[in-house]
Every structure is written in C-alpha cells, then in structure tokens.
Design brief:
Elements (H helix, E strand, L loop, with lengths): L2 H27 L10 E3 L13 E4 L22 E7 L10 E6 L7 E6 L7 E2 L11 E3 L14 E9 L4 E9 L3 H6 L9 E8 L8 E2 L28 E2 L3 E4 L5 E8 L6 E7 L5 E3 L17 E13 L5 E11 L6 E7 L6 E2 L15 E5 L2 E6 L2 E6 L5
Parallel strand pairs: 1-17
Antiparallel strand pairs: 2-23, 3-4, 4-5, 5-6, 5-7, 8-9, 9-10, 10-11, 12-14, 13-14, 14-15, 15-16, 17-18, 18-19, 19-20, 21-22, 22-23
Length: 391
C-alpha cells in the first residue's frame, strides 16, 4: 500500500533535481562575462589551471617611425618599442567596435602611440597610416619632443581602461620628472619622484584626443604641472620610481592597481593599491607583497606586474583571483611569467608548476579574452592561448 506513495516522492525529488540542473545550465548559458575593457579578464569558467604554454606567437609592433627610437643616443639602431595596452572601442562617443592598441618605448623622447585593428588578432595599423597629414602615431606627445641628446624625457607604459561612472577612457602612463630634486625637497611630496604615474582622459578613442590631468600648484615640483595619481612613497619599496603599473577594475567595481615599486637601493618588487574612482589611491598596508624573500621561492631579481584575472567565487563566498607577473634574474634580464592565486591581494600562493613557457616584455601584459582563446599582448608580440573551458 505504501510503495505508490514512495514512488511519487521519488518522482518529485527527481523532477526537482532536474529543474535545478536546468536552472544552473541556463544560468551558465546566460552567464555574462566581465567586460574586457575593465582589464580584469574573466576566467571563472576554467576547468583546470591556466596553461603554461601558448598556441602561437607573432610580432605585431615594429619601429618604423622616427619617434620610436631613442633620442638620447641618436646613432643607435635599437628600439625598446612595446608596452602594449589593448581596449575595444565599444564605449563612449564614436564607438566603432575596433581594437585600439596603445604602445610606447622606454627611451627618450617617447610618447604614447596608437594602432588600430578590425580584429583582435590584427593586423594593427598605426594611426598615421589613416591620416597622411599626421606627423606621427602618438596620441600623447612629450613636451620635449623631438628631444635631444642627453635629455631623459619620456612618457611610457600606457594602461588604458574604461570608467563607466565618468563616461571616460582612462589612460595611465608614467613620466620622467625633471623636477625630482625639488620634489624630494618639498615636505608635501613623498619619495624621490624620479618616475611617477599620471592619468589622461578622453571622451572618445576615435578622436585620438587625450587630456592629461594637471595641477598648477605642482608646477615647481612635478614637470609640466603633471599630477601624479600614483606618486612615489616615503617607504623604501617605491621610494625612487612609481611606474609600469597594471590597473584594472574588479567584479565588485573596486579599482585595483597591480604595482611595480622601485626602491633607491635594490630591485623592483610588487604590491597593490585600491581606489573607488581611479583617481585617488590607497596603498596596501602589506606592500610589497611579491618579492624574493616572501617565501615563494621566486627569482632574486626584477619583478614586473602582468595582469589580474577573476576565477570565480569559492564556497566561502570569497572571490578568487589569478595573478600573472614576471620574474627575471638581475643579470641577463629575461622576464619569465609566473602565476599565483589570491583572495585578498595579501597572501599569494604561487602556482607549483613554475614559470610559464611564453615570452613576456618589460611592461604589463595586456590580456583579452574572446571565447575559448586568451590573447596576450606583451612587448612587441601577441600570444594566443587555448583555454581549458567547455565551449
């Protein structure tokens, strides 16, 4: 007499499980990934760890304009061109859906250049080619351009992201501060101030017009009245230079700067800063976070920030992140990518597999995801990685 009742309960239980599974499947199907233009790349659907290798690599930048070579030593042929930062022009005014690649070099008298592509894989065409009247492909020109021998002026290491609240594109870059002696001597100014990170803004990328954020009151201690939004610090780890930072927004809207700190003595180490608006920053209290003596058995050499990726929520409710940075021995500098994991940007667990097998560059790594591929812009090159996802 009881078996029909049991069968009915079992049927209802199976039906409930099927409904919940369908809901989860539908939620996964309709999952909206994070906006790549916020620079925290969404890897929350990875089935296993990020690969250490890439499918392919190709050079996408070449020094073929006069400004892309050093004016410090005019006779040299080498160029440090690279420092790529990629966004897609699908926000703000004149959103044309194209990919905008910002780049620079780290010799005098570099500015910030731009190249554009219809597809993520390129080819990337410098903007001078679209307008023969243009003298060059720079969108931010150093005031000392075209420069001269022994003049160290430069703008470099661009990092571009979208600020939804202000409907503006933010372009962070570092500059050489000719007034660093006065900066150091000013009681209001922390650190040495040799190189510091500034901010430029634009309503639309297609115009190629950017405005550097300035403060006239700083004109005697910061060159060209530039306001350093990420200045040097009084603490040793970033006392000499504040530059080459990777800046992104996390899923909760918070701005996060993955920082490279350069001391007066010693080699660069890594830390973090946070912000509510991308303009005013708070330094992490535990900086530097990543360095040779942090217990992670990293290289005793040069550390550089790469990028930050979101890996999803843990059962505890905490968000998990992937950090990618590079380590290099001080002698024979060759940056090697390294992965690590964190939930609080204080404690970082290094990936036990060691260094990745793809080449990086001197600046940040600009990561962009489309479907099951991760596009990694580093130095002059683009690397394409196949992601372990169910697609």
């Amino acid at each position: 007499m009881k078996s029909p009742r049991i069968s009915r309960r079992l049927f209802l239980w199976v039906l409930l499980v099927l409904c919940l599974s369908a809901d989860r499947a539908e939620a996964q199907k309709s999952r909206r990934p994070l906006d790549n233009n916020l620079r925290c790349v969404d890897l929350s659907d990875l089935k296993k760890a990020l690969p250490l290798t890439v499918l392919s690599s190709k050079q996408i930048l070449e020094a073929d304009e006069a400004w892309e070579k050093s004016t410090w030593s005019p006779g040299q042929n080498r160029s440090s061109l690279g420092y790529p930062s990629l966004v897609r022009n699908d926000h703000g005014r004149k959103a044309d859906g194209k990919y905008y690649l910002y780049f620079a070099h780290h010799d005098p008298t570099s500015g910030i250049g731009c190249a554009v592509a219809d597809r993520i894989g390129g080819p990337y065409t410098k903007i001078k080619a679209f307008d023969p009247a243009r003298e060059h492909s720079m969108v931010l020109v150093n005031p000392h351009y075209p420069g001269k021998k022994d003049d160290p002026s430069h703008f470099s290491s661009p990092c571009v992201t979208w600020c939804e609240e202000e409907k503006l594109w933010f372009l962070y870059f570092h500059y050489y501060n000719h007034y660093h002696g006065a900066w150091k001597g000013d009681p209001r100014s922390p650190g040495q101030g040799n190189q510091m990170t500034a901010l430029a803004v634009s309503e639309d990328l297609a115009s190629h017009r950017w405005r550097i954020v300035r403060d006239e009151a700083l004109g005697k201690v910061s060159v060209h009245d530039i306001l350093p939004v990420l200045p040097t610090t009084k603490v040793p780890w970033m006392e000499s230079a504040s530059s080459y930072h990777a800046i992104q927004r996390l899923p909760d809207g918070q701005w996060l700067a993955f920082l490279r700190g350069t001391p007066v003595k010693g080699l660069p180490t890594l830390g973090f800063a946070t912000s509510e608006n991308g303009r005013v920053w708070r330094w992490g209290k535990n900086n530097p976070i990543l360095h040779p003596d942090d217990g992670g058995k990293g290289h005793r050499g040069i550390y550089r920030p790469g990028f930050v990726a979101y890996l999803g929520k843990l059962r505890s409710g905490k968000r998990k992140y992937l950090l990618v940075w590079t380590e290099s021995p001080a002698a024979g500098d060759v940056p090697q990518p390294r992965y690590g994991y964190t939930t609080d940007f204080i404690k970082v667990v290094r990936d036990p597999r060691g260094h990745a097998k793809w080449p990086a560059g001197d600046g940040l790594i600009s990561a962009w995801r489309e479907g099951g591929r991760l596009y990694l812009f580093a130095g002059k090159n683009l690397h394409i990685m196949k992601l372990p996802v169910s697609r």
